[in-house]
């Protein structure tokens, strides 16, 4: 095998996009996936939480020529629709206009689109082949089929996109410790569903939905929350995020649908009324785990490399897990597609450039959980948000809220984290002694902003 022959473990979102990009660049690509082909067996793999697609991910899809067809199946989300305890609602826009929106995409539907693209580009994908072990010195993988029959295949350069529970990561760690550290959040999640309001194929787009379709809906309740993301046919994927145990509401106390129904009737009565299948969903769907994965090393010399969740799984509260993985694929593919590629050098460069950024988005995702479940209804947060909006509207080259930097630009995550901290400190200083953002002298605030911070990159 030549250096431009690549074996990818995992045909999920990141693996199938990477396979497409490498195959389009003329590389020979073999993919092994432990699950059956979802286009034939139905999508049953991994979490089904809807995903928020933003600029980083869209740009990676553009590079593969897939953005237009993916967005055609997505639903625009202009902002967070916050549902308060008193029944009030507040749409907190993500950006300044409809050029700055997130897109709700179906994990399964997107995966199937990407599998089609990978095969159309020339990648070969074998399903029902689970990685058991790897011999990196010999360049072979041991795979098992659905009957647990084992066979050894030649692999050469191996790329691991097999998710947070990566089998390739475990095989690499047996050869040389990767410095793995997993930090559980202590909270879990459970998936529920609001069905479409109308299944009539002739119904108007808005008639399909029980809630505003162009928004991510949040019911913040302090230590916990519900969210709902729209689907094209009119349903919403609802996710309850809750502590696993401890004081206050927790999953340990919600032993069955009856207990859960009482909890929802108290804290989420409006969303409960929209879920006729609540009892069955709650009893049948397991509680998912939430954790952050950190590695000291993502690669094994020039033999194997991890990317996406296999290298840096994060909690989902910034909507950047998939986007960060797609950005991985878009940055890695050109390094590996070079005719004279030295994979050891390429892998080291990829890790050096990406790891500070994935560490940064991991930190911001954890911070965003607190913001979503609590701060979005906090008066001080809302005044700081109002001041940030006024400054960014007046001086867009000097201030952009961190959420917009992360979501609607491709500036490095690590840069966004540090700039966000500097902007937040300045906003806190400007608000000090003022009950409202309207009380702040905007001209003086702009002068201070320009003295303290450099302009944003173009």
Describe the protein's architecture and organization.
This protein is 39% helix and 22% strand. The mean pLDDT is 95. The strands form four sheets. Strands 6-5-14-15-16-13-17 form a seven-stranded mixed β-sheet. Strands 8-2-1-12-19-18 form a six-stranded mixed β-sheet, with helices on both faces. With 458 residues, it is of the alpha/beta class. The two termini are 43 Å apart. The longest helix has 31 residues, at 343-373.
β-strand number: 19
Low-confidence stretches: none
What is the spatial order of strands in the main beta sheet? Answer: 6-5-14-15-16-13-17
Largest sheet: 7 strands, mixed
Overall structural class, as computed from helix and strand content, comes to alpha/beta
Strand content: 15-25%
Features:
458 residues; alpha/beta; 7-stranded mixed beta sheet; 6-stranded mixed beta sheet; 16 helices; globular
Summarize the structure.
The chain has 458 residues and is α/β, with parallel strands linked by helices.
Would you spell out the secondary-structure blueprint of this structure?
Blueprint: E1 5-9, H1 13-24, E2 28-33, H2 38-41, E3 51-53, H3 55-63, H4 67-71, E4 75-77, E5 79-83, E6 89-93, E7 102-105, H5 107-121, E8 124-127, E9 130-135, E10 140-144, E11 150-154, E12 157-160, H6 167-175, E13 181-194, E14 216-220, E15 225-230, E16 236-243, H7 257-267, H8 269-272, H9 278-284, E17 288-294, E18 299-300, E19 304-306, H10 309-312, H11 321-336, H12 343-373, H13 379-394, H14 402-408, H15 413-431, H16 442-452
């Amino acid at each position: 095998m030549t250096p431009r022959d690549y074996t990818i473990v995992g045909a999920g979102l990141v693996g199938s996009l990477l396979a497409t990009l490498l195959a389009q660049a003329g590389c020979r690509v073999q993919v092994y996936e432990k699950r059956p082909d979802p286009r034939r067996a139905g999508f049953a793999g991994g979490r089904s939480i809807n995903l928020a697609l933003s600029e980083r991910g869209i740009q990676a899809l553009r590079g593969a020529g897939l953005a237009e067809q993916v967005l055609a199946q997505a639903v625009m989300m202009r902002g967070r629709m916050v549902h308060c305890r008193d029944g009030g609602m507040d749409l907190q826009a993500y950006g300044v206009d409809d050029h700055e929106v997130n897109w709700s995409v179906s994990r399964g539907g997107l995966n199937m689109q990407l599998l089609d693209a990978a095969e159309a580009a020339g990648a070969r994908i074998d399903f029902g082949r689970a990685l058991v072990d790897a011999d990196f010195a010999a360049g072979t993988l041991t795979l098992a089929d659905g009957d647990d029959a084992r066979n050894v295949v030649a692999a050469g350069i191996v790329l691991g996109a097999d998710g947070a529970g990566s089998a390739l990561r475990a095989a690499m760690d047996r050869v040389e410790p990767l410095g793995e550290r997993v930090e559980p959040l202590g909270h879990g999640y459970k998936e529920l569903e609001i069905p479409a309001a109308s299944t009539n194929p002739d119904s108007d787009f808005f008639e399909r939905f029980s809630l505003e379709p162009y928004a991510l809906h949040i019911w913040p309740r302090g230590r916990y929350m519900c969210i709902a993301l729209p689907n094209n046919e009119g349903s919403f994927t609802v996710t309850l995020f809750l502590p696993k145990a401890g004081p206050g509401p927790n999953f340990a106390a919600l032993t069955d649908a009856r207990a859960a129904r009482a909890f929802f009737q108290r804290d989420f009565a409006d969303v409960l009324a929209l879920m006729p299948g609540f009892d069955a969903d709650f009893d049948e769907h397991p509680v998912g785990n939430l954790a952050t994965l950190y590695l000291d090393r993502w690669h094994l010399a020039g033999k194997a490399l991890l990317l996406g969740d296999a290298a840096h799984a994060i909690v989902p509260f910034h909507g950047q897990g998939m986007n960060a993985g797609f950005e991985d694929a878009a940055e890695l593919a050109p390094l590996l597609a070079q005719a004279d590629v030295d994979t050891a050098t390429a892998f080291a460069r990829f890790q050096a450039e990406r790891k500070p950024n994935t560490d940064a988005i991991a930190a911001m995702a954890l911070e965003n959980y607190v913001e979503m479940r609590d701060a979005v209804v906090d008066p001080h947060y809302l005044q700081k948000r109002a001041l940030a909006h006024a400054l960014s509207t007046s001086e867009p080259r000097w201030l952009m809220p961190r959420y917009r930097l992360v979501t609607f630009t491709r500036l490095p995550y690590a840069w966004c984290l540090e700039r966000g901290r500097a902007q937040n400190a300045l906003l806190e200083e400007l608000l000090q002694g003022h009950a409202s953002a309207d009380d702040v002298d905007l001209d003086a605030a702009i002068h201070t902003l320009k003295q303290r911070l450099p302009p944003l990159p173009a």
